[in-house]
Amino acid sequence: MDRRTFVQLLAATPLASIANAETTPKCRVVTAYSAAKVPGMPGPYPGKVVAVRSEKSLDPAGKVADAGVVREMMARGIRALTGEATVLGAWRRFFEPADVVGIKVNCGGYPWVVSSPEIVAEVVRQLLAVGLRPPQIFLYERFQDQLDEVNYAPHLPEGVQIVAAESRNRHSDNGGYDPATYVEADLFGEEDTRSNLMSLVSRRLTKIINIPNMKDHGATGVTGCLKNIAYGSFSNVARTHYQGKSHTYSFVGTLAAVEPLRSRTVLQVMDGLRAVWHGGPFARTPRYVFQPRQILFGTDPVAIDRLLLDIIDDKRKAEGAISVWDRSPRYLKIDDSQARDGDPNVNIIIREPGHVEFAAGLGLGVYDRAKLSVQGIDL
């Protein structure tokens, strides 16, 4: 078979078929924790997603969120998800006063697309209403410098903990990770083959709320619930994509399924007020930022990320950019400066959006679009 024929077949073949035909890395999971009777992912509402949208959630420029509107969106979403008549009753479905709760934010898209302080503040407000005290609530992210950029503290009550595992990205600092809970895999012959879970997650927290963003990603295609909770809770994950090749197809779901992370992550609140359609996961320029002005609620990260695939891909198509599913080698440029120059038809890595379906195969949620229950609410 000549190269031209191979390229044509590669572009036309479904991603899942290609990825399954390739040899995925062998992963060894080491953990002393067992799964809960009903693991938090996919949780009590597999396949169910509530999408609350309000044009008034942001100002016309899309820069300032209206805290009052966000509060109402949160109230409507959590009630619709649980079927409870009251907001407090809905939050009590997941949390009780004795819990120690982690809120996994995403700060990598600073300054334009991060877990909105207005959403985070409302989550904290509801946890306090349930009966938790501020010291029982931990806002966490992997990197301290990213948390410092966003600066959540002014939006939160005194006593809420803000915790990072490392000082900054690409900095080897294992002090915040559990040496006894990890996934071991040799991906590219790297020296350090272990990705360890944050000690905060394994040793301190009893429940976790995941607050990801809607973002394109150069290796996974999109980064949403699964990647935020997985790559955001483990060390040494940047090694999964290198020189045009990616192992994110299998690794995202593998990490997300590790106990106790899987069982303790009980609620997904996807911040879709603002989003990134290209150049993610970072958003240093507003050029690729758009405003879906919605928040998605569920316990099933696969279901929400399945919808995210369509949201990001539809926006890319509307902008004339290649699909996140396009694996054509002609778009691959190993020199990432060419992608940063602003061409939305350049990949620096062959994307693997099939990681969402792979995670479904691990039991983390429902992938089949026809089997999803999606409730839309417009305010």
Structure commentary:
There is one protein chain. The N and C termini lie far apart (56 Å). The protein is of the alpha/beta class and 379 residues long. A hairpin with a 2-residue loop joins strand 11 and strand 12. The protein has one domain. Helix 8 crosses helix 9. The N terminus is likely disordered. Strands 2, 3, 4, 5, 8, 9, 10, 13, 14, 15 and 16 form an eleven-stranded mixed sheet that branches. It has a three-stranded antiparallel sheet with strand order 1-6-7. 30% of the residues lie in helices and 21% in strands. 50% of the residues are buried. The longest helix has 18 residues. It has 13 helices and 16 strands.
Short description:
A hairpin with a 3-residue loop joins strand 9 (213-217) and strand 10 (221-223). The chain has one domain.
Strands, helices and their partners?
Layout: H1 3-12, H2 15-21, E1 28-30, E2 48-53, H3 67-82, H4 87-92, E3 101-104, H5 117-130, E4 137-143, H6 144-150, E5 161-166, E6 177-184, E7 194-198, H7 199-204, E8 207-210, E9 213-217, E10 221-223, H8 225-231, E11 241-242, E12 245-246, H9 248-256, H10 261-264, E13 265-276, E14 289-290, E15 294-298, H11 301-318, H12 337-340, H13 355-361, E16 373-378
Parallel strand pairs: 2-16, 3-4, 3-8, 4-5, 8-13, 9-13
Antiparallel strand pairs: 1-6, 2-15, 6-7, 9-10, 11-12, 13-14, 13-15
